[in-house]
Amino acid sequence: MNLRQLASAFVFILALQLMTGCSKKTDSGPAAADKNIPLPDPPLVFEGEPGIPGGTFIVSEFGDPKTFNPITENEGSSEVFTRLLFSGLLGFDWPSQKPLPGLAEKWSVADDKKTWTFKLRKNLKWSDGHPLTAEDVLFTFNDVVYNTNVINAQADLIRVDKKDFQITKLDDLTIQVVTPETYAPFAESFGQIPIVPKHILANAVAQKSFDAAYGVNVKPDDLVCNGPFKLKAHRAGEQTTLVRNPYFFEVDKKGQHLPYFDNIIYTVSPDMNTMALRFRNGESYALELMRPEDYEPLKAEAQTGKFDVLELGMALERGFFWFNQNTNMSKVTGKPLVSPTKLKWFRNVKFRQAMSYALDRDSIVKSIYGGRAKANFGYITEANPKWYNPNVKQYPFDQAKARALLKEIGIEDRNGDGFLEDADGNVIEFILNTNTGNDVRIKTSVLIQEDLKRLGIKLIFQPMEFNALISKI
C-alpha cells in the first residue's frame, strides 16, 4: 500500500504554572501517604532530576476513551489512559528505540536466540495491594492475549508464522518464553504488552466476557491496575480523572515514590480551537496538539512568561491515508465489506501508485503546516534514525505520471466529461473519512480532494466524530 505521509514538526507547550502553583510540595495527600508503603526490590529508579511531589495536572484531549481495557483497546482515545494505568514487563525509550526495565528488573536471551528469560522485581503489587507475580504474566499471555475468544490487536505482535510463543513459569518471579523462530522485535513487542491481574479478571475469562471487562462504566475501585495512575472518576463527554497509584514500582534518585502528581484530569475538547482556548485561559496546563497557524502567536505570547514553547524536532507521528482492501463479507448483511468494483481498484498496485503521484505534498507542507513539516514517503519519519530509510521509493507530485499509470490499468476519461472511468464504465468515485475537530486533517483532506479532482476522480469527503471513525475502521 502506498501512503501519502507527512512528518510534522512536534511542538509541545508547557504552562509555567505547572512548575509553581499546581506542583507545589505538600506534606499531606496521596504522595505523603506513600512513605508507609514498602517498595519492590529493587524499585525502578528514574535517572532524571528529582522533582517535587504533589499537585494536579490538567490537559485537554479529543473525545472519550472507548474502554480502559489495555488488551482490547485499539484506538488512541483509549490508549491515552491505558498507558498510564498499566505497565508491561519492559519499558521503552522512544528516542533510542531501546527496551528498558519495567515490571521485569532484567531479561536475557539464550544462545539459540529463541529462549528468553524475564526476572520480575520482588514485592510487586497491584493497585489494590495484591501481589503481582509470574502467575499474572502467564495469565495475561496464555489465558487472555492468545485466547481466541478475546478479540485483540496484541496477539499478532507475538506470533511467528501464525505460531504462538511458548510461555512458562520457572518460579514466582521468573518467566521463560520460547519463540518458534528468531524474532527480531521480540523485546519491543512482547515486553510492551500490558500485564493484567489474574485475581480480578480470571472470572471474566472463564465466562467469556473479558471483552466487556474494564469498560468505561467500570467502578474505579474495580479497575485494578499496575501503572503509575489508577482511575478515580469518569464522566462521559466531560472528563476523566486519574489518581496516583501508591504501589507503582518506580522512584526517583532520592527514593521518592513516583509519579509526582496526585491527579491527572483529562477534559474532553471537541476540536483543536477549544484545546488552544482552554490552554490560553489556564484551564489546561499543556498543549500538545498545536495548529500550525497558532505557532507564531503562541511563540510571541510565550514571551510574557505564562508558558514555554518547547520545540522537540520532527515527530515520530505521521499523517497518511489508506485504501480499504478488505476482502471479507459483512457478518450482518452477508455482502462484501468493500464493493467488488472498488476493491478491484484499491488492490491494484498501479492505482495506489497513481494516487500517490497525484498528491502535491509540498503544497500541504506550505499551506497547512506553514512549512513546519516534511513530505514523507514511508511509514517511518526521520525522527526515528534507527529505522528511517531515506532511500525508500518516492512518488513526487506528477499528475501526468498518475494519468499514465491509470491508463495502463484501463482507467481514463472515456466520455469526455472530465471524470475517469474504469474499463467497465464505472466512474472512479470513493469516500474519504477522517475525524472532526482536527483542523490539520480536515484541511489536508480538502487539498487531497482538490488534487484528485484535477486528476478526474470524484472524492467524497465525509469527516466524522473520532470514536465513530474508529468503530467504522
Explain this structure.
By secondary structure, this protein is α+β, with helices and mostly antiparallel strands. The protein contains 13 helices and 20 strands. It has helices at 30-33, 76-85, 134-145, 186-192, 198-206, 272-280, 295-301, 340-346, 349-357, 361-367, 399-408, 439-455, 466-472; strands at 5-15, 44-45, 56-62, 90-93, 98-101, 104-109, 115-120, 159-160, 163-164, 166-171, 174-178, 229-235, 239-244, 250-251, 263-269, 286-287, 307-314, 373-376, 429-432, 458-461. The relative contact order is 0.16.
Keywords:
473 residues; 4-stranded antiparallel beta sheet; 13 helices; 20 strands; globular; disordered N terminus
Choose one word for the global shape: globular
Strand fraction:
15-25%
How far apart lie the N and C ends? 16 Å
Count, helices: 13
The largest sheet, given as strand count, sense and whether it forms a barrel, is: 4 strands, antiparallel
Range of helix content: 10-25%
- The tally of beta strands, per DSSP, is 20
Uncertain regions: pLDDT < 50 for 5+ in a row? Answer: 1-12, 16-28
Summarize the structure.
The protein has 13 helices and 20 strands.
Blueprint (SSEs and pairs):
Blueprint: E1 5-15, H1 30-33, E2 44-45, E3 56-62, H2 76-85, E4 90-93, E5 98-101, E6 104-109, E7 115-120, H3 134-145, E8 159-160, E9 163-164, E10 166-171, E11 174-178, H4 186-192, H5 198-206, E12 229-235, E13 239-244, E14 250-251, E15 263-269, H6 272-280, E16 286-287, H7 295-301, E17 307-314, H8 340-346, H9 349-357, H10 361-367, E18 373-376, H11 399-408, E19 429-432, H12 439-455, E20 458-461, H13 466-472
Parallel strand pairs: 2-14, 3-15, 19-20
Antiparallel strand pairs: 1-16, 1-17, 1-18, 4-5, 6-7, 7-11, 8-9, 10-11, 12-13, 13-15
Helix pairs in contact: 3-5, 9-11
